[in-house]
Every structure is written in C-alpha cells, then in structure tokens.
Amino acid sequence: MKLRLLAAAAFASLACACATVPAQLQGDVTQITPAQAREAGRPGLPVRWGGRIVATRASAERTCFEMIGSELSVYGRPRHMTDDGSGRFIACGAGYYDPAVYLKNRELTVTGRLEGFEAPRPETPGYERPRVIADSVYLWPQAPNQDPRYPYSRRPWPWIGWGWGDGRY
Prior knowledge:
There is one protein chain. The protein is mostly beta strands. It has a domain at about 50-140: CATH 2.40.50. Helix content is about 15%, strand content about 35%. The longest helix has 16 residues, at about 1-15. The chain is globular, with a radius of gyration of 21 Å.
C-alpha cells in the first residue's frame, strides 16, 4: 500500500514538473514591465516580455516586431492585454522571421536584453518604446476558436439540457 502511494506521489510530482516555461524562454530575468522600463530608462536589463504582434518588419539580418505587451502566465504565454497601450515595445531578433507566419495579433514571447528606446515613427505617433534585442523568439500556437459564452469545451453534465428546447433530441 505504501509503495502504491509513493508511486502515485512521484508520478504527480513529475507531472507538475512538466508544466513550466518553454526551454528557450527560461533564464534569470528582471521582473519589469515595458512601462516601468520606459520610466527607469536602464538599458542592459534581461527581460522576458510577451504580447500580441502589431507589425513585423523583416530584413535579411534581423526582424523587428512591434508589440502590445501583456502580463505573462506562469508558462510564459501572454495572458491579459493592457487597455492603455502603456505596454508597447519593440523586439528585434537576429535573422529573418517570415511576416506571413508572424502575423498581426499572434501571441509572441521574447527573452533578451533591453537595448534602449525607439522613437515613434511618423505614422504611429505616441511615446518612445523600449527596444529589446531578443535572444529567443517564441511564437505560441494559435488557440482554437471558442465561444466566450461557453468557456468549457464540454458540459460538466452533458445530459442536462437535452430535449428541453435546445434543438438536440
């Protein structure tokens, strides 16, 4: 009996250990938001930021992503979008990232060092955006479309509602 309990506890701990940040996003980073970085103005800080892509500017040497930053989950995936836009930043990674794959509104997480600040372009007025030189760029898989009125893919009790006017008999 003790052996079964010990085996179950070991299996549970191994299963929990698998739920972490992807390997390329791991490392020691400073817990600072893009808005806080703009106020602090300290280049060289290691950061892990993520959010949604606004635009992708690609060249042969490097690709820069204009991002709307958001809070990251414990897995490193962008979670909540900011309403005021104070979390905007630029992330530049070495090499070519295809803009047909790295589309607008896709979720992206980067790790790297804060390089400085980039003045807004004339067509996008606003404030200076922090610029990160990305060591790793992680494009998250697209989540399946789901009706927000029904947050669960299955009902907890599937027999409830059958035949009571919902069209399924």
